[in-house]
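Input record (one chain):
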Amino acid sequence: MRIYFHAAPRSWRRVLLVAALGGAACAGTARAGDGETPPAASGAVETMALELGDGVTMALSKVPAGRFVMGSPLGEPGRDEDETQHPVVITKTFAMGIYPVTQAQYLAVTGENPSQFAGLGHPVEKVSWEDATAFCGKLSQQAGRTVRLPTEAEWEYACRAGTTTAFNLGDELDPGQANFEESGIGGTTPVGKYPANALGLFDMHGNVREWVADRHNDYPEGEAVDPIGPEEGAFRVLRGGCWSIGAPRCRSALRGIDVPWARRNVIGFRVVVEL
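The corresponding structure, as predicted from the sequence alone:
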């Protein structure tokens, strides 16, 4: 499997191919106490691509290390009690899939497609947390790099992309910005149909909810550095919106939960690659 790294402007119309992922080009660190670092302050998006075979690729966006405030303020409409705001430091740069994993990508890696809403360009759904982690394990072996589910903190950090509003596009979500209940579609849509955030990440507020690595628990008090969630717990966390739920349940800070063996037509996932 070949891995390509690209540096591109936000329009993604001009792509510069770089030979390797390693070295200083992919390095990035942040320290506890560093200032707020919106990930896409430069206005540029850097992407990499994994070849999965049979002409199928997976595009990922580079997410620089930094810090942000995780959770939601007390007055945010739709806020849940488990969204306590607290500072978080992400010390390592990583790459995140610009889309949730598609049916074509899942099929290329596993040879299976469990989805209810058929369409190779649609997100894969009806996959459990266990299925998602197995996919990451197989892709890690093929790519020769660590591919995994994002932590809950990485997911929200990447979703916000430097924003502090309820959604990464503002304090309100309308049907032209994501596939959620008010869009009236009643199922998934092809990935990338709606606007991306400042990091070039699509479908963070709609289409399918996304498994992350963490078990669910209350957030820690005070600053957290690269949090990974509790070691024990019955439920895994879901992030993002989906086609069947209303806007308040699609917010950047919203935390869903489910058992790790659940397979539902509203649940998919996206991956990160360690750099």
